[in-house]
Specification:
Blueprint: H1 4-22, E1 26-31, H2 34-37, H3 39-54, E2 58-63, H4 66-75, E3 82-83, E4 86-87, H5 91-115, E5 120-125, E6 131-135, E7 148-153, H6 156-163, E8 167-176, E9 182-184, H7 187-198, E10 202-207, E11 225-227, H8 231-236, H9 244-256, E12 261-266, H10 272-278, E13 285-288
Parallel strand pairs: 1-2, 1-10, 2-8, 5-8, 6-8, 10-12, 11-13
Antiparallel strand pairs: 3-4, 6-7, 8-9, 12-13
Helix pairs in contact: 4-5, 7-9
Length: 292
């Protein structure tokens, strides 16, 4: 009969080849959703980041902060407005976005990592012009305010942090190249472009769903692997729809830019990052090129 200690030992042995494969590699993790607002899930993500750091995997954490932004806007009696799913960002809202993302959320994440025994540094897209952006123009005639489209990533400041043994924790407020302003950018998109610029092994996007489901309301219909060449067909069939479309597009962008694998994981499950990276079972949906 196998006791608990033997089971723990088996788990560590199972993780060994994955640790060997990914040691020294960069993994970009986009963190948001329930994993940010549920205390147990929050702690699990931080612990995952520290463990990856300790075994020599260079984890880069890119974060959002929608709930905290909404809370502050409510306190200031500033109305939250969305246009085609994007937060309309006027000057007043942009000030709140910058202060909450680059200040409170970013520094809370860094301090928690440090308290739990890791080493981390907080960055935003303004540092070293890490993220350059111009005003978003989707060609639909809509004005999105101070929402930016990332045009360039300058990864040197992140590479320096990694070289110094730090976990880079990144808020996706970008440096405006077409105006003297900062821009609010989509964290999924920024994470994908950062993964490409860093030559990352993996891009991981935490969501509030199990992954891509073949049947919309059936979580047992998880699609574990998707070839990038299958994406358009799955969209036409309605399998990839709604909020999953931009996430899949970000994964495809990363893969086309040289990232080997992209993953959409269920951020509602504690330690889903470690399950995906260090076990045979894996978690969520993996997007990659099966051929070539």
């Amino acid at each position: 009969m196998i006791n608990n200690n033997q089971l723990r030992a088996q788990t560590l042995v199972e993780a060994l080849p994955y640790i060997q494969e990914f040691t020294g590699k960069v993994v970009v993790i986009k963190y948001g959703g329930n994993a940010m607002i549920n205390e147990e899930l929050f702690d699990a993500v931080i612990e995952d980041m520290i463990l990856l750091q300790l075994v020599g995997i260079h984890a880069v954490l890119v974060h959002g902060g929608g709930p905290e932004i909404n809370e502050m806007l409510d306190k200031l009696s500033i109305e939250s407005k969305f246009v085609n799913g994007l937060r309309y960002t006027d000057k007043e809202t942009m000030d709140v976005v910058q202060s909450i993302l680059c200040g409170k959320v970013n520094k809370d994440l860094v301090s928690t990592i440090v308290r739990k025994g890791g080493s981390a540094i907080g960055l935003c897209g303004l540092d070293g012009k890490l993220l350059e952006a111009k005003k978003l123009d989707k060609g639909d005639g809509e004005d999105y305010g101070y929402v930016g489209d990332v045009t360039k990533v300058n990864p040197e400041v992140v590479l320096q942090a990694i070289g110094d043994g730090q976990i880079p924790v990144i808020a996706t407020v970008a440096y405006g190249v077409d105006s003297d302003t900062a821009y609010n950018t989509n964290a999924d998109t920024a994470a994908a472009q950062l993964a490409v610029a860093l030559g990352a092994e993996k891009l991981i996007i935490l969501t509030n769903t199990r992954g891509v489901l073949r049947e919309k309301d059936n979580e047992n219909s998880l699609i574990q692997k998707i070839d990038v060449d299958e994406i358009e067909s799955l969209r036409e069939k309605g399998v990839i729809e709604g909020g999953m479309i931009p996430k899949i597009e970000c994964c495809a962008t990363a893969i086309s830019g040289g990232v080997k694998r992209a993953h959409i994981l269920d951020g509602r499950i504690a330690h889903s990052i470690l399950v995906e990276m260090l076990t045979d079972e894996g978690a969520g949906t993996m997007i990659c090129l099966f051929r070539g």
